[in-house]
Amino acid sequence: MKPHILITAGDPLGIGPEIIAKALAVQRTRAAADFTVIGDTRALKKAGFKSGLIPVDAAGLDLNKRGPCACAGLASFKAVKLALKLLKKGAFDALVTAPISKESWHLAGVRHTGHTELFRDETGLEPLMAFILGPVRAALVTEHLALKHIPGKIKKDLVMAKTFLFSDALKRTGIARPRVILTALNPHAGDGGLLGMEEIWVLKPAIAHLRKKGLRVAGPAPTDAAWAAHLKGLADGILCLYHDQALGPLKLLPGAGRAVHWTWGLPFIRTSPAHGTAFDIAGQGIADPSSMTEALLFAAKLAMKKG
User: Fold this and answer.
1) What domain range includes position 152?
2) What's the pLDDT tens digit per position in 97-106?
């Protein structure tokens, strides 16, 4: 029996409706699961979406304009909130979310800065943001934070919690004893404290504790060295301390357009494309659905394993 996957259409003025319509037109996608979409009716129909819709209409939306706006933000937020209710009822096996605009959520008065932050608040759990691209597996200790706030967030307990989550996520993909490499915060891993003390005071003690617990963890390594080790196969996953340590290198890799964002540690399976709303090309019919297609297929694969 095929899993039943729920999709939220993201910002109706972004490329979400288009990449959903294109991804669901692919035979191998349709063969993997049954899909239901929550989103703005007009935006989805304009993009070519045909069936399986739960409407959350954006009142007053002008589909000829592109960019952040309150009505689009409210519609995309309501879609995710409805999805959470349906998932709690057990009506679906997984959730795939198309990109939302954080600015639009802010304009709509939503206090959350994104999906992950909303899920954390709704579930009371600390999830892990991970990214999958073939054999490449990267994850984050912190998510959407200004750089000036990151040092204060890097605590031993958080680093350990995220490493445990990442190790469990890697096991879910079939790796029995995952090897994780942790990036450093400062250049040259702090140069013995000359460029920062976080490696000495936080990261090394966290790694030592994790090793005592039986986890295979290396580091803290400078970002370039950590990525080189992962790409050479010396580590099964790279755990990065902040957003751009992971996403910058990931998006420079061959085939980066197929990368999938995977949120692990929630009561439900959640994946998404590893890109944003792309307002600059929305509505032109030129958006690449590869990441959405892979997100749908990966969610179906995880759901089948769960079953």
Assistant:
1) 128-256
2) 999 999 999 9
